[in-house]
Amino acid sequence: MIWILVPIITIFVILFLLLLSRIYIYFYFSYKEQQPILTVRVTLFRLLSFKKEINLSDQAGVFTKETELNQVLDQGKHWLDLLKQMNRSVSILCENILIHQLDWRTVAGTGEAVSTGMAGAAFWSVKGGLTGYIVEKSILRCRPLIHFEPKFNEKCFTTKMESMVSIRMGKAIRAFIKITRLNKTSTVDMSGGDL
């Protein structure tokens, strides 16, 4: 009898520890010299680590070689609108996330002082909106560093964003189940309305 209980108790203890363990996710995005690159590193128990680098210029329609400053601003506004539309799903996901690091730096210029100033104001608006939305929905454990440096006499655009977040494995599973249920009910509501 004891030989049956020991493995069962051991399995339950391991599962319990796994559910309480914290997953750390590190994001690094850079756009420099028309090369958008996203690096994601996921760490569990500070030992197991997975790292993936994605060149987003390979993704159709996301970035092109001829990306202009106005297109970048429009893309940022699009992402902000998309976050607002997915408000409930993003809230469920972010409510259990701890933000340990958030650093977003941009250098941009249009070649003219006036249009660079207007672009700078637009960038602050987009950055402030996106950052404020995510910070409001999650638990902040650091001071966000948001920086914009205007280049009045040259045409350029570079940006980099570093972020480290963590979530407990059990809370991540629970959030995934909630989002799946929410998406199923919204799909059923949409299809049921036509009957």
Structure description:
With 195 residues, this protein is of the alpha/beta class. It has one domain (23-186). 48% of the residues lie in helices and 33% in strands. It is built from five helices and seven strands. The chain has helices at 2-20, 69-85, 87-94, 113-137, 169-192; strands spanning 22-32, 35-44, 48-55, 98-110, 139-140, 145-150, 155-168. Strands 1, 2, 3, 4, 5, 6 and 7 form a seven-stranded mixed sheet that branches. Helix 2 runs parallel beside helix 4 and helix 3 packs antiparallel against helix 5. The termini are far apart. The relative contact order is 0.18. Mean pLDDT is 78; it is low at 60-66.
